[in-house]
Amino acid sequence: MIAFLTKRLMHALLVMFVISVIAFAIQGNLGDPIQQMVGQSVPESERAALRDQLGLNDPFHVQYLRFAGNALQGDFGYSYFYREPALEVIARHLPATLELVFGASLLIVLLSVPIGVFSAIKPHALLSRFFMGVSIVGISVPVFLTAIILIQIFSIGISVTLFPGSTAWGAWLNAALSTQGHMPSFGRGYELVHVMGHWDTNLASFDGLKHLVLPSIALASIMLPLFIRLIRAEMMEVLQSEYVKFARAKGIAPRRIHFLHALKNTMLPVITVGGVQIGTMVAYTILTETVFQWPGLGLMFLDAINRADIPLIVAYLMIVGVIFVVTNTLVDLIYGLVNPTVKLTGKPA
Amino acid sequence: MSTNTSSPAATPAVGRWQRLRDSYLAYSFKRDWGAQLCLAILLGLISMALLAPWLAPTDPYDLAQIDILDSELPPFWVDGSDARYTLGTDAQGRDLWSIILYGTRVSLLIGFGAVLLQALLGVVFGLMAGYLGGRVDAFLMRLADIQLSFSTLMVAIVVGAVVKATLGGAFYSDYAVLMLILIIGLAEWPQYARTVRASVLGEKRKEYVDAAKTMGLGSRRIMFRHVLPNTLTPIFVISTVQVANAIISEAALSFLGLGMPETHPSLGSLIKAGFDYLQSGSWWITLIPGAVLVVLVLSINLLGDWLRDVMNPRLYKG
Amino acid sequence: MALLEVRDLDVRFALRHGEVRALRNVNFTLDRGERLGIVGESGAGKSVAAFSLLNLIARPGFIAGGSIRFDGQELTGLGERGLRKIRGNRISMIFQDPMMTLNPVLSIGEQMVECLKAHRRISRREARAIALHKLQQVQIPSPDTRLDQYPHELSGGMRQRVIIAIALLLDPDIIIADEPTTALDVTIQAEIMALLRELCEKHNVGLVLITHDLGVVSQVTQRMLVMYAGRVIEAGPTREIINDPQHPYTQGLMNALPQMATPGSHLNQIRGSMPSLANLPSGCAFHPRCDFIDRADGSPRPACTERIPAFVDSGNCRVACHMVAEMLAREATPIKEKVQ
Fold it and tell me: Record's family (chain B) (predicted)?
């Protein structure tokens, strides 16, 4: 376990190093900090002095080390737009994104396991085929389009006039297919409950939860089918294995075979893929937050790009990098706890 | 199959084998109406896109043909539609049908272009990693790991954002097609590299590689002439899914404003442009291009699923 | 009455292009404490026979007919719930490859305790005590630490010992062992086989041993069946069949053993290979490979290509072969004439 952890830690440090170099390169090449600080009217000699004073003429590695040192102390510079420390801006936007990710993850975990397991145990059942059909459609609809469709249906509402409204059945069908559309689709709402620091939560009020519903569904809409398909495929493979047959030969009840013997083995690759998908999830938060104007990190990042707010972009990349590395290490840790073979070899068998 | 009976003695062993597999493919295809439907839809969309200049009633890139007074007209089945515009018009008064044809063209161009680049990079790196092994392998695969752990869309967004900020918005828009092909191509090569590497490692153990070595063939020749042909099946299968992914990535980038400009829109930028008018009731500007995008991606994905079932290659998991 | 009585067992696989009959009219019995060997090449249907006893054949396989009576109870059509009470409890199984049989993510103790708890109302502690006792019986070194170990920490031989211990957990009446030593190192094979035999003898447990190894059968079992292409072709006391095989196929198997070959010459292999179950040769399924098929004039015996041979008694054995039947008839006829 120690060997395993050191290995993962080394990997994490390497990833953080790569990210910081990229972030530093972006900072060095994008925009001129002097320009941002003093404006056009200052003479060239004064600029040069300032450049020297700020260490912008130092060799690359010296500048990088200074950057990395500052970053380690949480100093990512000042946001051009917000006129406050970049880290402060990020801290203010972080809770909204985390709550969104929490909502989506809840949906994914609560739905993907039962649906995936069911459609693996009964692959020919009508319901399984239905789930598989829906999931391939789900994978094919981009997140932002899902979000737009959700807004149209549940927020704006649709009125169907496809069937003849003069007949009773037509009117009934029209009414049944039409939606009212009252779900909020913009921002987090105003009934946020303050928890601590920068953290105001959507989770503690009815209105807050209502605001969270559509964005969470949209964010979950691609991962959920992906996980359902993955769990199903892995589970079906595991159900063919000798040890599942042996468990049946021992007279073990099907429920225990499915949910202990098979599921525990199924979850190993699922956990690994889940770790990889965390990155995708972050990318999707940018899309989801853009559609719903959800004031989280993703929307902040996109705004920062459009405003060329370099320190904020750099800070976002570094923080996202930290989140990646931490969650990936956590996922590896969970994997190690579930998979007993990790202990010996330091490498999943 | 009838094709197999023609002069079997003249065809070399590899050709015959390939032909046999092709015929199995053809055989399964004939039995599967779902796959036929998907291919028909896909080919229909591709030919529509290719023939856009002839099929489209108006040229959406020609500002002279656009009248702002015609903006936000609904499609034909909704009250208040205009007979000139079958699918209605967008906020600038462009004919939606025409601009969807041209948009599909852009989306497909970027999708296929990016996958071509991915495949090229991935195959070369994958072959190198799998065949040379050692440090080259360790370096390339670690790079692939890191890039994949960020997810390809995230990499594409960051690269797109940085490139746009460096080169300036106007320049970026002018060369958007090229930029998107480069960005999506660079972001997704690890998928190919890992798949190719996995099958190279499988093939490497087989005897014909040893045989080629003992005959004194150089490693580059062995890689391209002997190992590569045997990795084609998995490459082919993941390519379908990769095209679908590339089209979605392009749409996502365009939706974020990091892709095609509205003057030269892809399906993604059409959706983005229309989204602003969703609340005012003009749902068609965003949802009709959206439907086209979904049908396009879905038919490719379903074909990919079918191919995977039929060819059953050893794919890299995860 | 025998403890286990299999009558006319018929197992089929419903494949896309029609049904394949994996077992046809398989008959045998097993008495309490008796050890029976089932022998044949791979593809003969031995494993299908073993797995169908507890209805563990995977889809698309199914039992199409016949009866399996165990201790007076009919097992075919008993249903999963009823079978579950017998599986692992009164009839247990040992699988071929110990590396694949144990669940990699559950500890040895867990996999033993769950089996006990599935069949008996006992506490975890009691179950662990029984598991420990069984591990001692299969002579695993330091059994108490094994309980908390995972399969990957044990060698193949150790794992097969654990599996034998699991098979013995509930003191079953019968153990079905499907090629229990094939996947092991040659040096360990004999050890494990001797252990299995010793334990069955000591606890009076019946054994159905599936194997392709005639040596193992002769060492361990009292009676044996020889299977070919889904049918039993010879059955009887092991010693008699080994010493004097009647069926040409059994003779071929015996001749193919390395120790039967004269040094320096080729091994006496049976020519050809096992036919596919999907299209069996007409008549006796073995006739295309049979050395005795040709009469003096070189043409095949008509009966062999036309009719499936019925069983005839030859001493204590039963053989399904036209040639043997003819020979027996020839021997018997003069006696009858004398009586008349």
Answer: Belongs to the binding-protein-dependent transport system permease family.
